[in-house]
Fold:
Amino acid sequence: MKKSRFTIDFRPKLFSTLKGYNFETFTKDAMAGIIVGIVAIPLAIAFGIASGVGPTEGLVTAIIAGFLISVFGGSKVQIGGPTGAFIVIIYGIIQQFGIGGLAIATIMAGVILVLMGLFRLGSVIKFMPYPIIVGFTGGIAITIFSTQMNDLFGLGIENVPANFIDKWVCYFQNIGNINWWSAAIGLLSILIIIYTPKFSKKIPGSLLAIIVATALCWVLEKYAGVTSIFTIGDLYELPSGLPEWNVPALPEGETLFSTMQSLLPVAFTIAMLGAIESLLSAMVADGVIGDRHNSNTELIGQGIANIVVPFFGGIPATGAIARTMANINNGGRTPIAGIVHTVVLLCVLLLLGGLVGAIPMPCLAGVLIMVSYNMSGWRTIRSMCRQSRSDIAVLFTTLLLTVIFDLTIAIEVGLVLAVVLFMRRIMENTSISVINKELEVHHDGEGEDEKLTIPPFAEVYEIDGPFFFGIANKFEEMARTRSKATVRIIRMRKVSFIDATGLHNLEIFISSTLESGRKVVLSGVNESVYRSLKRSGLVAKVGKENVQENIHKALNRAAEIC
Structure:
């Protein structure tokens, strides 16, 4: 017998795509990379500011994490960087643990992602129910929208409450402080983003909105004396050169172990969210370019990026669906396009810091409002409302918990609720019946159905569906019924699996039957269930000769026993 050896599934797409790489492919990749870099500028800045850090941190994350994801990732066209999904989590971590705590949580999340890839858990996306994904994505979108009202309307609130309800109470209390110039710039930016695709698919609406809004604010200030519109430079320190390597500082009065202990739940949430978003993005990209990504390599690449980026002041990063699609639509077909996109962002960081500082805050608020609208998936939510009530319950529970509390609680409760409702659905589809007169035998289209008469010395317990802890107690209750039958036949042809509780209840049933001087015959046991019964000793207890392949042979065996 060969011993199975642990192998690491790490094969970055960059190295395989370089074979046969030519100038024509490079030209397409370079053009796509430049366009995606331009698209990423406003998003990286906006996500950095909305997360509670700053424009520099957003750009640094897009540069370093984007580069590492392109070099070490498992997708040919994935574009990595900060995304809107992380805004809520990052903001909450900073409020509770500070910048140092965020850096440590990001590194921990990176390690978790690498381990997920090493242990071949790239199929993790399959274990996350779709209503939960739609629910927390919609919840994040609502939360991002709610964080932009202060900047959009120029309310001038210095400390906006973190809690969703308190935030809106605060907004309404300050509604009289609306800066109409800010509101006009913000609404103009939203309109530009909405209508740009109608006359040009190539020009990014968010970039055009930033150019127009920045130019308009400069004109208003120079010729109309309007100085009440806040810009990035008014509120944040602007980029000034390459980022420096810094070891994250621990929160005051905390040890590394206690900090890691406190941050483990949020680190796990960052890792799960990063895995889900990056693998979803890679799957969508596969469908467009006709390729197949390596999910385990993608997780390792994402993990490496998140381990490294905090040492340069960056924030969590993952694959970005919108930027990945922009890359594909503009001709990008290898990770070289992703690398070129980071070079464009690096040039912005080093050379255009002054221009970044002139971008008005209400314009960025407009960009993020449109990001939240596109994230919301309201059409998907509307269509899912026509589906089963259990899916609707999971979706809206996850959405509301994300909005009112936080994403960690939402995912935990959503998963538990999904599991409970799934088990309930299985229980509804699993039936147990006791037959002691006439049994209908269905041959599933392979022959004519027939009716078998059960002799008075036998009774049949038919289990139709998985035999797990949710249904095992029901079987135990039915097994208590008194009968004069000498042989009890347990028909298990539709039992796809059996768990420990099912085995335990079955053992009790067999033991009590044997102790009363009667016999048990098992009928139609499939191979995997038979192995479970054998390991638990139940086959030996009933006797191998009493395990029959179908109900006809089981009834013949019952006749022999009697």
Notes: The mean pLDDT is 87.
